[in-house]
Amino acid sequence: MATDIDLRDDGESDRRESLFDAIDGADPGDTLAITADGDVDVHLVRYQIERDRRLAWEHADPDTEPRELDVTVGEPLADDALATIDVRDLTPQRRHEVLLDLFEELPAGEEFVLVNDHDPKPLYHELRSMHGDVIDWEYASRDAGEWRVEIRRNADSKGVGSEDVGSEEANRGAATDDVITRYDVREIPKQERHPTIHHRYGMIPEGGIMEIVAAHEPRPLHREFERQYGDSFSWEVVESEPGRCRVQITKSPGVGGHDVDGRTGDDRHGGDRDEHRGDDDGDDRDGDATQTTTSPTDEEALDVIKEFDVRDLPPAQRHEQIFDAYDELETGTGFVLVNDHDPKPLYHQFEAEAGPAFRWEYRKRDAGEFRVLIAKAATDEPDDAASSEPEAPF
């Protein structure tokens, strides 16, 4: 039977102390039912590191507050074992918030194991952009639905707003509390830049700021944001000097410009399109690469064979089952995915792995109910066309 531990009346420092005391008094195999006003995942990882004792926990809900979770106390960690955090039952936004906080508190020389349901590579780029080259990142396993990465902080970092990321004036701007995340695209491979940025932008709250650092102003990315998000964001160049441009993108409430499948008017009516693969080092060039699109064309006859509602599934199981459903599709068929939030991050994973036959089209976007057609179309495109990056239908 679980022991109830209510931390809602504790401040942040008292919460940590009360949590540690409760776990210290538990025996291996005991379960503690924790209730708190905020996430305690960082404290649980810190406990494993400081006390050399294994913990495992599961949240009652991926996002609602107060946070409720069951913590199972384990045996002492073996000599070569690491503290572990499994984020598969958290919403994507909470995952990043918890992991950024965890790395912020991680002393130099410490490490932990991250367990996720897909490749967390965007987090690697985010940590490098926020903290510099102080991260050791090693994949321990890459199984379907369970990726394990050993993450080590090998040196101290000064983080966003420190003297190593720009001029004093620029750092004052970078240090604002509203900057949720930061990406230095100069350090990210070109083919990973746009999927990484869109994957993370979809998670930040309204009013939050994403900061992009590039060699020059990334105009192709700006145009892409205009197509995909309409006028629901603002774009401000806050620093520009030779070899370095810093842009802050602020997410504001959506005020139109998108229809039900997420395309702007120009996209719907065949207007001019900029190359999705535009270089974020600032080169404002139109490419000659063949464009692909992930929205079905009028000529494609796709047979919708089923509706797949994942809202009752734990978040940790959703991605794996959706990919399994796609793998089982025959050419020319598809299914309608029903989810309780915008599955946009899933699009970027399909984009990277599924090839030119992949199709994605929004059918409904309401609070608590998103419907997306996911299909496998026939394609006669040559291999070089498949290597070009598709234009996201948002």
Describe the structure.
With 394 residues, the chain is α/β, with parallel strands linked by helices. It folds into three domains: 3-153, no CATH class; 163-268, no CATH class; 303-386, Translation Initiation Factor IF3. Helices cover 28% and strands 29% of the residues. It has helices at 12-24, 41-51, 92-105, 121-131, 168-174, 190-201, 219-229, 265-268, 315-327, 344-353, 383-386, and strands at residues 3-6, 31-36, 53-59, 67-76, 83-86, 111-116, 135-143, 146-153, 179-184, 209-214, 233-241, 244-251, 303-309, 333-339, 358-366, 369-376. The strands form four sheets. It has a four-stranded mixed beta sheet, with helices on one face. Strand 11 (233-241) and strand 12 (244-251) form a beta hairpin. Helix 2 (41-51) packs parallel to helix 3 (92-105) and helix 6 packs antiparallel against helix 10 (344-353). The N and C termini lie far apart (47 Å). The model is unreliable at 160-175, 255-279, 281-293 and 381-390 (pLDDT under 50).
SSE layout:
Elements: E1 3-6, H1 12-24, E2 31-36, H2 41-51, E3 53-59, E4 67-76, E5 83-86, H3 92-105, E6 111-116, H4 121-131, E7 135-143, E8 146-153, H5 168-174, E9 179-184, H6 190-201, E10 209-214, H7 219-229, E11 233-241, E12 244-251, H8 265-268, E13 303-309, H9 315-327, E14 333-339, H10 344-353, E15 358-366, E16 369-376, H11 383-386
Parallel strand pairs: 1-2, 5-6, 9-10, 13-14
Antiparallel strand pairs: 2-4, 3-4, 6-8, 7-8, 10-12, 11-12, 14-16, 15-16
Helix pairs in contact: 2-3, 6-10
Biased composition (Basic and acidic residues): 258-279
Region (Disordered): 155-177, 248-299
Protein name: DUF2249 domain-containing protein
